[in-house]
Design a protein that fits this description.
mainly alpha, flat, 11 helices
Length: about 290
Amino acid sequence: MTWSPVARRSGSTRERLRGALLVLPAVALALVVLGGGVGATVLQAFGLLPVVGPVRPGVGAFTARPGEVGAAVAVSLGVAAAATAVAVVVGTIAAVVIVSRTRSARVVAMLGTVTVTIPHLIAAATVGLLLSDAGVLPRLLGIASEAWAPWVGGPLWGAAIVELAWKESAFIALIVTGTLATRIQTYDETAALLGAGRAHRFRHVLLPLTAPTILIGAAISFVYALGSYEVLWLLGRTSPEPLPVLAVRLFQGVSLDSRPEAAAVALVTCVIALAVVAATFAALRRTASWR
C-alpha cells in the first residue's frame, strides 16, 4: 500500500510578492545584525581588522593552531551528530505518541512542554549533578564514584550528548507534533480504516509526510549543538576543546594577538553550519512532500 504526498498549491506572483514584503523588515534586521557580526569576524580573521597594530592581510590566523582546530572540529561534529541522531529518534517517537490520543499522550506532551522552557544552562547543571561520579544517580544506585562511568568530562562526552539530546528531542517533538496534527493525521486515520498496521502507517504515511519537518528540526538541532558553549564547557573535557569553547578561550586570552585566531575558529564554525544548512535544503528538494 502506497500513499501519495500532499499536493502543494503554487501561489501567484502577487501572493509571493506580498509574502516577501511581509517578512522584509525581519529579514532586513537579521541581515544587519548577523551581517555586521559575521562581516567583522571575517575581516578580523583575515587580518583586515586588527585590534592592535597595522593591517596584515593573510590566513595566518587559520594556520596558527592546525592541531587544536582539527581536533575541535572532530569533537564538535561528533557531539552534534550523536546528540542530533538521538534527539530525532526520541522526538519523532514522542510526537507520534502525543498525537495517538492514548493515556500517555498527555504525560509525554507535558514533559516535552516543560523541557522546552528549561534554559540550556540550567539543564546542563542538572545533568551534571545527576550524572557526575558523585552525583545523585550513582548515589541512588549505590555505585561507588570510582566504579561510575565518566559521563561528565569523559572521553565520550556522554553528559553533553545526553543534555543536548534531551533538550533538542523536546524541540523536535514540538514541531513534528504540529505537522502531524494537520491533514497528515487524517491520512493516518484513513490508512488505519483501510487495514494498515501501525508500523506500515508509520513507514508509508507518517514518516514520508513528516520528513521535511524532521530534516529541518535535525538541522536546527545540529547547528545549535555545534555552536553550544555553555553545555560543552560545563559537561565536557578540557582537552580537546570543541569549537565554541576554543573560540571563547582564545577571545578571552590575555594576549590580543589571539583575537584573530578566535575569529578564525568562529568563522570555521559558521562555515560548517552553513554547509549543514545547504545540505539540508538540498535534501529537502529531493523529498516528494516538499515538492
